[in-house]
Amino acid sequence: MTAPHLQTTRTCPFAPPAEHERLRDLGKPTKVTMPNGEQAWALGRLEDIRAMLSDPRFSSDRFQPGFPTLVKERPQQLRQGGFRPSLIMMDPPEHGEVRRTIIGEFTVKRMAALRPRIQQIVDDHIDAMLAGPNPADLVKALSLPVPSLVICEMLGVPYADHDFFQTSSATLLRLSAPPEERAAASEAIRAYLADLVDRKREQPADDLLSRQLAKTGDIEELVGLGFLLLLAGHETTANMISLGVVALLDHPDQLAALRADPSRTPAAVEELLRYFTIAEFATSRVAREDVELGGVLIRAGEGVVTLGNAANRDPAAFANPADFDVDPRRPPPHRVRLRPPPVPRPEPRPPRTPDRLRHPLPARPHAAPRHPRRRPSLQGRRHHLRHLRTPRHLDHLMPTIVADATRCVGAGQCVLTDPDAFDQDDDQGLVLILHPTPTSADALSRARQAILLCPSQALSLHE
Ligand code: HEM
Question: SS3 of 336, please?
Answer without folding.
Answer: coil
